[in-house]
Fold this sequence. Notes:
This protein is mainly alpha-helical. 45% of the residues lie in helices and 11% in strands. The chain contains ten helices and five strands. A three-stranded parallel β-sheet has the order 1-2-3, sandwiched between helices. A two-stranded antiparallel ribbon has the order 4-5. The protein is globular.
Amino acid sequence: MGPNGGGKSTLVRLLNGLLKPDSGAVRVLGLDPAEKPFEVRRRLGVLFQDPDNNLVAPFVEDDVAFGLENLGVRREEMRERVKKAIRDVGLEGFERREPHTLSGGEKQRVALAGILAVEPDVLVLDEPTAMLDAEGRREVLDRIRKLRRTKTILHVTHHLEEVLDADRILVLNGGRLVADVSPERLVLDAGLLRENRLALPPVLRISHELGLGFCRTPEDLARAILQKAAKRAELR
């Protein structure tokens, strides 16, 4: 996370070898992306924010297979990996659909399936919901949460509510790492939020102002309010 111009997208491009560092060194799973970009891209998949820019083929299953074809994967194995990837993003039955007929969220899930089919060790998501409507955003975030069980995920976003269940939040500003904290620590640090132009989502802002602690969802907030009201009633 971090303000515009903080270095988030630059970091993504350094990780997959689209940019070379002016100084220092970049290593991904022990590999230098500038020297071995194709090896790195087999192990690190990047999903960019514009779903239309992620799609290249006339049908969904062809799009998901595109990366495997470039890697020379055998046809039988390719079919199995494409089938599994489409199932993993919840798009079974969409195999022969044309990508341009899909919603933004569905397009982004097709692009995600294409990355999963290559079976990378790490997923890098560069603001994957930035150009989606509310429903598309929910679809993509649901799939990302499920993938956290089996993949290392680096999720770049301006929306704090999208990463409240993350293990760590890294804050970049001016090309520097200014914080490496838990979500709970970040939302309670008003100075860190202010200095890096990070806004609390409404639920967290309300719970903080009411002194109700760390409420991630509206349901958490409602429970906390009811519990506080019940305690007050007991004291009376």
